[in-house]
Amino acid sequence: MNQQVTNQQLANNGSTLNDSFPVTVTVTGAAGQIGYSLLFRLATGEVFGQRKVNLRLLETEEGAKVAKGVAMELADCAFPLLGEVTISTDPAEGFKGANAAFLVGAKPRQKGEERSDLLQANGKIFAPQGKAIGEVAADDIRVLVVGNPANTNAAIVAAHAQGVAPKQITALTRLDHNRALAQVAEKLDVAVTDLTNMTVWGNHSATQFPDVTELKVKGEPAEDKLDDQWVNDEFIPRVAKRGAEIIEVRGRSSAASAASAACDHMRTWINGTAENDWVSVALPSDGSYGVPEGLVSSFPCRSVDGQWEIVQGLELSDDQRDRINNSVAELQEELDAVKSAGLV
Ligand code: NAD
Ligand code: LMR
User: Fold this and answer.
1) Fewer CB atoms < 10 Å away: N or C end of the chain?
2) DSSP string of 213-243, one letter each residue
């Protein structure tokens, strides 16, 4: 009865109620702002389908006390699909048997900071977590790093998670993707569901490249409907700096929208992308589009049979290449910095 579900079974049976296959999901930073939104959505079944969800909350000593209260609230919701909820401060316990992990636990930036300013404080969190994932999680675990700087933290995880294939370790750029969809939908006065083939390339940072070249509106190219000046002077900087804008206006970094994007990312990974569409995913590069192998960069991706595949064969203009290269150069700098610090 307590047999663990494999990720292939999840992809095949994502919506079949089957109590004999609970899914075990680890959420780090469970006591934080994002955790407070994410955990309740995971418990409803909206990501893993109609099966029991066991939640492992991994926190610091201080955070574990708050996580206990969050676990009490989860119980009070009487979610039919919620299984066991455990709290721990030891990655070897927190990732045990995990089929999926949301690595959220990390410091958020404050007004005026860049996400890369967090590298020193946050980078060291991810080496021991990566090691534990390699040692105790399910072999085909799906990992999503949310804690910033998410791409390079994911590179640290990938370097330490022995035996876990690089494409099982991803970082979140679905929030940027969703932001880009929302901006265009508003501009063209269409529904977000009318839009397909949006791409965010590069780093989850101000250098990211939200790219509308392949974007379609109801199946028709969007480029004819969007003027270059709006795209270059308003859309790209708006999306790339949206995180800072939220901090400025809200006083704290995005939380519910980040949790929502994390759910979207994992749900698409399990259930697959819609036909003729793709989503943006940061994952270790295999050299596609000239991005050096190993850098965790955002690409247009499809999920096929429960595995991410980078969309191949898109022809890039010089402008697209320059923008991608600019963001990739920043990723390389971040990776060099964590290498010098001995984190990878
Ligand atoms: P928060 O400060 O509210 O919560 C962070 C939690 O992480 C705290 O409870 C803290 O105790 C915990 N934590 C710290 N170190 C830990 C460790 N080693 N193990 C387990 N838990 C640990 O922060 P938040 O608003 O929830 O944001 C979390 C992270 O997500 C930040 O780095 C933020 O910048 C990032 N973020 C990323 C995106 C994205 O799109 N990639 C979007 C929003 C926020
Ligand atoms: C975001 O994009 O909202 C998050 O990465 C938080 C931040 O620091 O901007």
Assistant:
1) N
2) TT-EETTEESGGGS-HHIIIIIIHHHHHTHH
CA of 172 to the centre of ligand 2 (A): 10
Q: What is the pLDDT of residues 34-76, one digit of tens each?
A: 999 999 999 999 999 999 999 999 999 999 999 999 999 999 9
Determine the atom of ligand 2 nearest the C-alpha atom of 253. Answer: 6
Please tell me the distance between residue 51's alpha carbon and the centre of ligand 2 in angstroms: 31
Element (H, E) at 245: helix 242-250
- Residue 255 CA to residue 259 CA, distance in Å, equals 6
Alpha-carbon gap, residue 303 to 81, rounded angstroms:
25
Which atom belonging to ligand 2 lies closest to the Cα atom of 108? 8
Segment 194-203 mean pLDDT: 98
pLDDT at 313 over 90: yes
To the question of pTM greater than 0.90 for the whole model, the response is yes
Does ligand 2 have an atom closer than 6 angstroms to the CB of 32? no
Q: Give the angle subtended at the CA of 175 by the CAs of 122 and 202, to the nearest 5°.
A: 70
Report the alpha-carbon distance of residue 216 to residue 111 in Å, rounded.
35
Q: Which of 83, 78, 153, 149 is nearest to 116 (CA)?
A: 149
DSSP state of 99: S
CA 120/CA 142 separation, integer angstroms: 25
pLDDT (average), residues 108-130: 91
Residues 250-288 have pLDDT tens digits of: 999 999 999 999 999 999 999 999 999 999 999 999 999
